[in-house]
Each structure stands twice: as structure tokens, then as C-alpha cells.
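Q: Second attempt. The first request was missing the SMILES, so the protein and flavin mononucleotide are both included now.
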Amino acid sequence: MKALVAYDTKFGNTQRVAELIAEGLKEAGVEASVQHMKSVELDTLQDYGAIFMGSPNHIRRPTGTFNKFVKNLQKCNLKDKTLVAFDTYSIGKPEENVEVKPGGSQFQVALLKMEHRIQKKLPHLKLITPGLSIAVIGQKGPILDVELAKCKEFGKNIALQL
Ligand SMILES: Cc1cc2nc3c(=O)[nH]c(=O)nc-3n(C[C@H](O)[C@H](O)[C@H](O)COP(=O)(O)O)c2cc1C
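A: Got both inputs this time. The predicted holo structure:
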């Protein structure tokens, strides 16, 4: 089984999440390739049994690049693929000495829209839910420390379901 972990990113955090998911997949014996959504060659998609799709939360939504990627998948007549979504969101810029925790009002907000879109546009493909929603500090990140381990663990857990 081969998996593609495709991501969009502005500041690199969603790419980092993609790389950590891929590490988890690999540790569980799944061959994983990490690529920006814009550089994925559509005719290579047939090679993958699972396709992960990641987007940053931009104004409570996934990015246009994510939407376009889903549209491209529709054109590919894919069969027997498993799909998985993940997002990154901001927990804002906390004041010094204030403990920062993942969660809050933006948790899973873009992710749920991504999953809804995938189910609507690609209903014949299997979507594993819930996907992964990872908190970053401010807009540029970094990813919260407590979140890093979750990414790899997520990859490992999904690998068991493939
Ligand atoms: C134009 C723009 C709009 C954003 N809107 C939101 C938002 O509505 N909610 C939120 O939690 N984060 C928002 N963010 C923060 C992003 O989620 C954060 O920059 C992103 O997760 C970082 O991922 P990246 O490094 O892969 O770009 C926004 C960022 C940008 C650039």
C-alpha cells in the first residue's frame, strides 16, 4: 500500500504536519510520499491506495488550492481509494507566561468543511473520519509542542485502517 500526503501551506506548518503523518505511516509499514497539492501529477494518483489532504484554515475555510485539488480528483475517475483530511488552525498569539493549549473555537472548523466537501464531491471513495486538526501559534506558527506527537500517531493509526 502506498499513501500520498498532499498539503497546501503558506508558512510551512501544514507541510510539517504532512511530513510527520508520513513518518508515522512509514513506521507502520506504509510507503508514503509527501507533496504540495500544486505539484501532484494527476496521472500518478492511481498509484496510491490512500490520499491524505491537508490545508491551513484560512478565514474558517480550507484554501482554494484544496478545493481545486478535490475538483482534480473528481476528474481522475479514482476507485478504491481511502481519503483522509487534516487542517492547521491558529490559537492566536498568547501573552507571555500564559499557558497555551490546543482547542478553542477554530478547532476542526476547516477540517469539517474539508470532510463535507470530500463526501459531497467524491461520494464513491472511502473517507476516514475524524481527520486531524492541529493548532499553531499565531499565523506563522510554530506548531504547538503538544501537537507534534499527535501527527505521527495519527499516521500510525490510519495505517492500521488501510
Ligand atoms: C489569510 C489567512 C486567514 C486565516 N484565517 C484563520 C481563521 O479564520 N482561523 C484560524 O484559526 N486561523 C486562521 N489563519 C491562521 C492559519 O490557520 C495559519 O496561518 C496556518 O494554520 C498556518 O499553516 P501554514 O504554515 O501551513 O500556512 C489564517 C491565516 C491566513 C494567512
